[in-house]
Amino acid sequence: METIIKVSDLVKTYKVQRGKKGLKGAIKNLFSREYEEVKAVDAINLEINKGEMVGYIGPNGAGKSTTIKMLTGVLQPTSGSVRVNGLDPFRDRIKNAFNIGVVFGQRNQLLWDISVQESFDLFKDIYEIPEDLYQRNLEIFDEMIGLDDIMDIQVRKLSLGMKMKANIVASLLHDPEVVFLDEPTIGLDVMVKHSIRRFLKQVNQEKNTTVILTTHDMDDIEELCDRIIIIDQGNILYDGNLIGLKDEFITNSRLEVELKEAVSIVELFNDEFKINKRKEGLAWEIIFPNRYKPAAIITKIMEKAEVVDVSIEEMSLEQMIKQLYEDKSLGSDN
């Protein structure tokens, strides 16, 4: 597969002033200042192939926004190398801008007082988009997400959902190889979120556009991304798919059974199983290692009692990531 983004030993450090406390400290700060270096990104390495949809996630201050700014050419790395479609994003900022699309949350990139159509026409001139490609893309995007109802409206009069739709389309008009999306569904209602996710999937499938998504909405990640990169304190903690994340970090599953009559099932299982009694023995919670199959556990219970209902609780992506951060925190204390 063709590698479109390659990052090697990427580092970004900032100088942060260490302020002295109290009145005396404030006076001293006027004459002498002390600084310390903080690594926002700490020697990360990654490769992203053309056409991938990648979720790049982490808590606030983890280093994800700093990474994206280096990939888009906004920030210069302290050390290491970045290549996006063969270009150095910072040194080749103009060429890189023609190859990428960017949407940063609710920061509007369209002109406030003109219509969406006029804004798109302006983007056509800025990116030097050939007329036939421009018209073809407008037709394609109109079929995918519906643009007719917003084209003649001033940007400032658009609803939040319509504005996000217009901004995403604007970022794709010039057929970028890579599009960076930061919180593209923040603050939107369920139906608009669904529409934008479906649109992004279609663009990815039909144009093979590489999508890098940063978001705190785990539903965006689960619905759109085949690959997840988790960063914290400037280091990559995980790079893989959802199944791999679960296999690597989630060791137990939870099952709850409801029985027709109160029967004890404790003696059916060994010490690896945590069995909790519910409803005076009419229901039982079973927490068990992932290597055991739920179907086998249920079969064993059915040999002793009549099962009325079964529920299997899968850990959500948000819970998985929370556990990953907690495990890392515990490990760093040792």
From TrEMBL:
Pfam families: ABC_tran (PF00005). Keywords: ATP-binding, Nucleotide-binding, Transport. InterPro entries: AAA+_ATPase, ABC_transporter-like_ATP-bd, ABC_transporter-like_CS, ABC_transporter_ATP-binding, P-loop_NTPase. The keyword Nucleus does not apply. Coiled coil: none annotated. One of its GO terms (molecular function) is ATP binding. SUPFAM superfamilies: P-loop containing nucleoside triphosphate hydrolases (SSF52540). Residues 5-258 form the ABC transporter domain. This is ABC-2 type transport system ATP-binding protein.
